[in-house]
Predict the 3D structure of the following.
Amino acid sequence: MSNWIREAKYVEEKFLEELYALKWDIHVIDDSDNKYRTDKALLGRTSFKEVLLTDRLTSAIRRINGSWLKDEQVKEVISTLSNINETSLFENNLSTTQLLIENTSVDLNHDTGAKSPTVKYLDFETGDNHDGGLVG
């Protein structure tokens, strides 16, 4: 059994099973759709270089945090997540995980005037608030 097959069977598939049990919306893309870059495989992205489903992430961030976020602030929050650029894949994954868990902030809550309010990517208290979309 090759390393790739072992990883797919014992890591990726098990991880997807856990997320499915948490009611995440899992999109498994057929190899033929990936090979021919079909719309089904792109899921609203313009290319496979885009790792985030930006429309769904935007909606989830608004749902989790409320209406006080302005459009440019949501773009800034997504940019923070999409522009992690460490020196190795391990460090990228670590930084991304830390950001998702520890959250980020923006300059101002325009409704209340609070400075540097926290913006959550995930809602650990109310699981129905986040999108939970994953492409596998």
The mean pLDDT is 82. The two ends are 21 Å apart (CA to CA). The CA atoms of residues 45 and 75 lie 16 Å apart. Residues 3-135 form one domain.
